[in-house]
Amino acid sequence: MKRTSISLVLALLVLALLAAGIWVWQRNGAYGFNVLQRRGGTYWVRIGAGDARLPPSMRAALQDTVPAVSAGQFYWREFEPGYEVAEMPVLSPDGEVDRVLLNRIDPKHFRFVVRSAPAGDKGLDEWERALPGAVLIVNGSYFDLKGKPDTPLISEGEQLGPSQYQARAGAFVGREDGSAGVRDLTQAKWQDAMAGARNAMVAYPLLLDEDGQTHVNLKSRWLANRTFVAQDKAGRILIGTTRDAFFSLDRLADFLKDAPLDLTLALNLDGGPIACQSVRLHGFQRKFYAQWEAQVSDGAPKGSEVSLLRWPFAQATWAMPVVLTVERAR
Hints:
The protein is α+β, with helices and mostly antiparallel strands. It folds into two domains: 1-40; 43-328, no CATH class. The protein is 20% helix and 35% strand. The protein has five helices and 22 strands. The chain has helices at 2-39, 56-61, 124-130, 190-193, 249-258, and strands at 43-47, 70-71, 77-80, 83-92, 95-105, 110-116, 134-139, 153-155, 158-160, 170-175, 180-184, 197-203, 206-208, 223-224, 227-232, 237-242, 263-268, 277-281, 284-288, 293-295, 306-310, 322-328. Strands 2, 3, 4, 5, 13, 15, 16 and 17 form an eight-stranded antiparallel sheet that branches. The longest helix is centred in the N-terminal third of the chain and has 38 residues, at 2-39.
């Protein structure tokens, strides 16, 4: 009887695991299994706004009065013709609260490629191994529960993502002739903006419009590591990632508008722990793993509880189902 009971329990456990596996596959496909294997899943933790588990940048942004910030002094360094790097401090009256890891690229010397790996088996390390010639790898636009592109993409001439999509923000477009840039979609169709592109992706929100004015009107208290792609008045492409998580999207737009970057257009890409960056130039390397995302409900009083994004395997790095890479021109 005892042996029969044990067998029954084991059978029920196997059935439960099988049912759970079927549910994960139907909901998330291969991406879901790789998420579980890679980081054990994802969950939100409710903590106080001053909790020590939050980085100083987040605690500063969650004060009753968010400190005003400006760009600190920084210098561009060119390690290959047409490719410059810098780190721009974000300074409050009390000191540095964040830092933007910047890349400034001349499209005449480099090409921009949008890539997709919906299985969720490629984080920053795996993308580096798969693309030994890529000089820059950052996260791209958004993806769905199965890791597939959630916005229209073109990857090396192949159309990916939804064919029916209402885009009201912007797109990044790279063409065969070597031109590249951010396109404002507030008054244009994404199909027209991306027509003939070799690599392109729709993303949101548009941070700065064609006049260099902020384009994020909704105030938010959603904080995260951020990645953006922009262009300056000289036609160069700037790609930046925040080292910490001081910025909501509206405050990032305000910061970029005033920063000494000479930007004309800027487009937000996906954010949070996925906002990683790898740079591999002759004489310079940078590798950054993001890890922060938290939110306070809109309308909640200051000082209220914060939802912090966490995962069981604390040292795990996130998969990047959509990436933007920069590669030397052929």
